[in-house]
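pasting for ref
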Amino acid sequence: MKVEFYHTMFIAFLISVITGPIIIYRLRRLKFGQQVREDGPYSHLRKTGTPTMGGVIFLFSLLVTSLFMVPKTLNFYLLVLIILGNGAIGLLDDMSKYIYKRSLGLKARNKLLGQAFLVLLLAVVLWINGHSTVVDIPFGPSVNLGIIYPIFMLLIIIGSSNAVNLTDGLDGLASGTAIISLLAYMFIAFSLGFTDIAFFCAALVGACFGFLIYNFHPAKIFMGDVGSLSLGAVLGTVAVLTKTEFILVIIGGIFVLETLSVIIQVIAYKFTGKRVFKMSPLHHHFELCGWSEWKVVNVFWAVAFILALTGLVSV
């Protein structure tokens, strides 16, 4: 691995560490505090008022670092489009929570429409530039999806975006898990010859590491939807650009499990009136089983690390 990747990571880390306290201070002054769900774990009520929208810390760091360290290729500009576009949607969502003083922000359909527009724009650009519609299934055959590939892209990118959003419920959980996934993709991109994407992942890893310092339990700031939606979307986009779409299901296995727990809970309650989990997403279930927040986060990080290694072997 080129030493320049680690320089990129370190520069992004420093920028996040330096700008973090400034942004936290400004958000506190503006009273952009978290609105906690009343039906959530009782211990979370003390987090009410903690500054949110912390995703702007690592997005700012990423952009500044990218100006000097990341090759300016088509892949780079597409990744910037997706991460900033979803970040903007997330920012609107966070702002609406602040304005209306409630834990729910934009209507789901409005967020999905915005995200779908960005993915379809990405699909058009990739189609014009001859992006392959063949999908490789790990340990299985390759399948040419042809004209339905854009729909597959929608599922991968929007699904990944909202899966990270669901995972962002405990201090450091989403940011730490995303760092592990991005590190895996940095190595994958480099090994497959996508040096530009590898540099982008390195910058984002460093930026997220710097943010994680302030997001550790007890968190001084939360990433908000501006952070979680953008992180998840860019993970899905990296998978699409490197043609490792199904590998993301393995590397991002924690995000998949969190999403499945919500789906299972909703279906089970609708048809049987009973809940499979004490609460969904899955991390809240373990909290209500008596696990400390820090234990849940550490176990989920460990599982994410094992899944990331499995994904690397599968490439």
